[in-house]
Amino acid sequence: MNVLIIEDERPAAQKLSRLLKEIQPGIRIIGILESVEQSINWFLTNPAPDLIFMDIQLEDGISFEIFENCRVDTPIIFTTAYDTFTLKAFKVNSVDYLLKPIVPEDLQKAIEKFKTLHIPVPEYVRLEHLLRQFRPSRKERFLIRVGEHYTSIPVATIHCFYIRERCTFLVTQTGKHYPVDYSLDQIEQLIDPASYFRINRNFIIRFEAIGDLLVYSSNRLKIILSGWNDPEELIVSRERVTRFKEWMDR
Fold first, then answer.
1. Measured between alpha carbons, how far is 204 from 162 in angstroms, rounded to an integer?
2. CB 19 within 8 A of CB 43
3. How far is CA 218 from the centre of its chain?
4. What is the pTM of this model?
5. How far apart are CA 167 and CA 180, in angstroms?
6. Could you tell me which residues are beta bridge partners of residue 98?
7. How far, in Å, CA of 171 to CA of 178, rounded?
């Protein structure tokens, strides 16, 4: 990050430069300017830095005169011994307003504020953030009550979910059945669709748990599921067969 310092007091400029390099080792100080006139000439002949630290009272005037004579679009952190120019400072690209003597913690916060407001986020990061906003979070486990105790069942160990008598249950890889406080519709939104498929209104099954797949009547399919020891057959409904085959053949 390229930083320009506009400060007419040499010791203050050197201290600020040292603090910046301690707080942000990647910072490169590209110049230290001491006056309004010197600053105007610099902005007219040099590419813009990433960030400017600017004192308000310079040796030949007030730094706001710089903006009256040339265009400055770079974000600015003002550093001054006076707090009378705060409002005016925030009308000219100001990120923050630090009073001297500068406290390292305040300087760190000002830099972080600058990064938050002005450093562009890579496109893939912004897209991933948007996807997380619209994509339901996937559960990693279900908390189950067993008598007076609770146990946590990892999703990876669940072979199927089903409805019976208006209650929802899960079945583990060891064949144990537990009631869960979710509907199948809710569970569909909470688990990975690449691993689970709702074969009919009453069952969601896990891909890795499928032991065998059989042709059933009227072009339907029958699933033999590991861990399923119940007499009820697992049948893929007619309207879901095509999508189920696509899911299996991905």
1. 6
2. no
3. 48
4. 0.48
5. 8
6. 79
7. 7
